Fold this sequence. Notes:
The chain has 13 helices and eight strands. The chain is α/β, with parallel strands linked by helices. The model has no long low-confidence stretch (mean pLDDT 91). It starts with a strand and ends in a 6-residue tail after the last helix. It has one domain. Strand 7, helix 8 and strand 8 form a beta-alpha-beta unit.
Amino acid sequence: MRINLLGAPVDCLTMEQAEERVAELVRSGGPRRIITLNPEFLYRAVREDHTLMELVDRADLVTADGEGIVWGGRVAGTPFPERVTGIDLMLRLVKRAAAEGWRVFLLGAAPGVAEEAAENMVKRFPGLQVVGTQHGYFKPHEEAGIVETIKQRAPQLLFVALGAPAQEKWIDRHIESIGDVVAIGVGGSFDVISGRVARAPLWMQKLKIEWLGRLISEPSRWRRMLVLPKFALLVLRTYRLGYKN
Length: 245
C-alpha cells in the first residue's frame, strides 16, 4: 500500500517487507529505482524543486527514511509501521545478496571509502560479490565511462552514495542505460560502513533522535537541519490547518 504524503507516494512497509519488495524487483529484472525519502528531500520537492517530486513518482519503491516522515504520516492520519532508513535497508540487502548470489556495485563517497566499505561488507557477509567500486569525485565527462563500466559488471544492486538529491538525479539519468539493476541512493552510508564515520549510538536510534547524533558528530550539518522545522510546519499547515501546498 502507498500513502500520499504532501503529494509524494510513499510505500507503507516494514523494513522486512521493504527487503522482500527489493528481492521481487531484483527477480523481475529491468531498471528499478528506490528512493529512501527523508524530510529534507520531500520539503525541497514540494517547495523548491518540483523535478524531485517527479523522481519520487518514477520510483519503484519509496521508503519512509527518517522519523520526520513517520511523524508526518501520523499527523496525516496514515501512519507508517516504522522508518526504513537507507543504511539499514542497504545492510539487509547486502546480507541478502550474499545469500542469494546477487552482484553488488558501490558508487560514491570520497576516494577509497567505497573500497573500504566493500572490504568490510565482504568480511561481515562471506560470499558477497562486490563486482566494482567507484568514488564519487568524478568529472561530468567521465560519467559515460563509469556507466559503461557498471553495465559491463552487470550488478543486480547498485548503491549510490552521492548525497541527496544528486544521487537520485544520477540514477534517473543513467539507469536506463545500465539496464537490469535495482539502484538505491544511500547518502553517507559508505562512510559509516567503512568505519570512517561513527553512526549515532543505538540508544539515540531507539529514542528516534539519530539526527541529533549526526549533528553533534558533524556540526557543519546545522544548515541542513534548518529544514526540519520548515517541514514540520508544512505538515501541520496541510493536515491540521487545511492549507494547500
